[in-house]
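Internal QA ticket QA-208
Title: Verify multi-chain structure generation after dependency bump
Assignee: T.L.

Test input:
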Amino acid sequence: MTRSELIDLLAQRFPQLVLKDAELSVKTILDAMTENLATGERIEIRGFGSFSLNYRPPRLGRNPKTGTKVQVPAKYVPHFKAGKELRDRVDAIGQ
Amino acid sequence: MTLTKADLADLLFEQVGLNKREAKDMVEAFFEEVRNALEQGDSVKLSGFGNFELRTKSERPGRNPKTGEEIPISARRVVTFHASQKLKTRVEEHYAEQPMQVAQA
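Actual output:
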């Protein structure tokens, strides 16, 4: 499922709204989630899961082309942990 | 502050102009459609944010951490999330500007 398919499905669920509303809703939700993670805030969606940041300490890496060592600075990377309902539903099929 | 469904509904009310009821339902429907797709074995690609993918794991040996007893971890299907380059870059840029306090999951 792509972003535009999600927009179409949501538009079908809300016949009183125009497609533009579904489109703007998806954009608003994803932008807010991006913004929160980018400023180090968690996201917690009951029944779906939580997003947080994981710390990656600085390390000595290598340029794969030249083989020279480069210092890779510490950074944070986004992390998702599925919630119980999502975990159970995804695992139920095919069992 | 942790972002929740209630916060997202407030944003849809303020920024999209949905009424309170629609805003709450829209947030719920958004995550329900993603769950539905994943439940049906379909991956979800939200451009600019990231991809949710499914991985099938075969049975592997595990251990009860309390008792040390060996018990098999059954085969299962799990969801993985891969942040888009845009989201990764946004997170890294902010950290480069100012080290932050991060709440863990």
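Spot checks passed. Chain A touches chain B through 60 residues (CB under 8 Å).
Status: verified.
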